[in-house]
Amino acid sequence: MKTKLFLITPPFTQLNTPYPATAYIKGFLNTKGIESVQADLGIEVILKLFSKEGLQSLFAVASSKFRVEEISDNSKRIYALQEEYIKTIDSVIAFLQGKNPTLALQICQEDYLPEASRFAQLEELDWAFGTMGTQDKAKHLATLYLEDISDFIVECVDANFGFSRYAERLGRSANSFDEMYAALQQEPTYIDTVLLSILKERIETIEPTLFLISVPFPGNLYSAFRAAQWVKKHHPKIKISMGGGFPNTELRSLSDARVFEFFDYITLDDGEAPVEELIANIEEPNYNSFKRTFLLEEGIVVYKNNSLKQDYKQSQVGTPDYSDLLLDQYISVIEIVNPMHRMWSDGRWNKLTMAHGCYWGKCTFCDISLDYIKIYEPVAASLLCDRMEEMIAQTGENGFHYVDEAAPPALMRALALEILRRKLSVTWWTNIRFEKSFTKDLCLLLKASGCIAVSGGLEVASDRLLKLIDKGVTVEQVAKVTRNFTEACVMVHAYLMYGYPTQTVQETVDSLEMVRQLFEVGVLQSGFWHQFAMTAHSPVGLYPEKFGVVKETEVIGTFANNDINYTDSTGIDHDKFSFGLKKSLFNFMHGVCFDYELQDWFEFKIPKTKISPDFIFDALQENDGFNIKPTAKIVWLGGKPFAASLTKTKKGNSWEMMNLTFHDKKESFTIQTNKKEGEWLVAMLLKMAVSNVKIYSFQEIKSDFEIQFEDFELFWYSKPINTLREFGLLIL
Q1: Which of 27, 406, 590, 598 is the most exposed place for a label (fewest CB within 10 A)?
Q2: Where are the beta strands (DSSP E) in 572-667?
Q3: What confidence tens digit (pLDDT) does each residue in 169-228 have?
Q4: What pTM value is reported for the model?
């Protein structure tokens, strides 16, 4: 029997770009010659729901579920305007897909779209529209329009609906399967029926023998079970397996047999080898070899990892394959409050990883005991660029989001050099650690290669807590790195954490002050506060006594098991800080309210900060020194200069000089040297050009200079070289 695979991401993840898990698996299957079809059912459900026919059906279903007098004024308004929504929806969706740009002019006149409660926030956002072009403003207004419809769906049709988190409550902290199981015994919701109608058509067309469901987040879990339930009922011969981020972190201690009424297999961690073994088991029923797989045997959940097959190296898994996905139908919405969140929701991004796992792998709040983080394996820069070129050819998009836990600086440097060497025109962004390796020159190199943004964990802006977290950075260091990126015109987003074990109220206040200063001096452009959550596979979860916390229970759930309830020895209610931290950040991101007292953000008494008001400013004044290592790599980003010789005479003495005129993308500039040194410099710049495979070290350049001349240091620190340093002569 020849296996045919159907791979899906169930609703809902992202509207603007496909989640890459199925594309990764399909790319791997291609290397093995195994037939597969993939689908992002999230975007397909959205497109069916948010259409003329979809809204007609939606309003009809809603009217059968409620009496008008029973619903909120907001839903009454939307219901009353249903014809306007039905009339405009197809045009708006096409516009958000990039297919109908002229509609922006009409949307911006603000008498085209029906408006409900979401539009009330417009008055607060006038500041944003001042800098927005017509397309972006229209995109934001269209986003509010969709959110209004979503509010109506939640109140009147399906309380679990959400654009990126469907029935997320059922998937979060679900130690027991009871609530999810009970929900699955109910009649399918309206959203479920839309999903199942699409699934039915796909299953009947593809006729797979193995159905793989990737569940990246809790908000995909319920619909994954609904999809599996339908296939089990109507096509019982099809084998069904779940994999992805959610089972990798949450289902490692699974023991509830009821789960296997829906799934035949659940696999953990890297999916390539486990899926290959599943295929072998389907094609040879007596094969009985599995890789990191849960299954049911005689009514008992068993975990089998008896396969001798090794996991594949990153160089062996192939290039992610996005074929079958509706790449031209994804919807770009606009989040204007948070610049980094906007990048998540707007635009098309090919998703890749520079490395498997995390090169740091020490942060105590992170699930570093799990293989997907613990096992670090970088991908060679040349192979990354090969994959980028293949994906550009396939998708037509040259934007890349590297989704690494933290991209390694050395590999980022190598990738940037390779991109520049190949003369690729790409846009990319990624996650980093704010470590000192990100010098001013490295940031300039990354920018030159197309890097537009980085996000990194500042977490707690307290050196004591950063040490406890084992982050390996200090606040001063973070400030300098963010400055280096900012000066290179690379946007910086900081992940911020509050409520870490043993964190005092004073430390929370001081963290906020640090964040305020980082925004005030202009080295941070975006941020997001989240409250610490203790997970089972993190050092804090594994060894809570070391961090001053006590687990509320040692009982391991029969279904999901990751988030752990705990008691902090401080006894502080960290929840109460949430609103003030987020409100202040909202204002800081938009360059206002830096002069407010920190107390103004909170309705309860807080202590005064102990941080000097100029702490960050002073940290940025410190000179890190200018000591160049002999092994440092020197790269020239500019082009070949125009050289012109001239003779200078003074007091009867004449000597030959040289003017070198350079043209970069913005301006022209000229430097002057003596003729011999100028000739050497022109030749050396050609050798140091970023387009060359060979990269010269500082020592090699010094040695070459000293064949003809003396005192290299005097030449290197001269005004002409300093000028070149400003225009693309980089020390890496």
Answers
A1: 590
A2: 633-636, 642-650, 653-663
A3: 666 656 889 999 999 999 999 999 999 999 999 999 999 999 999 999 999 999 999 999
A4: 0.92
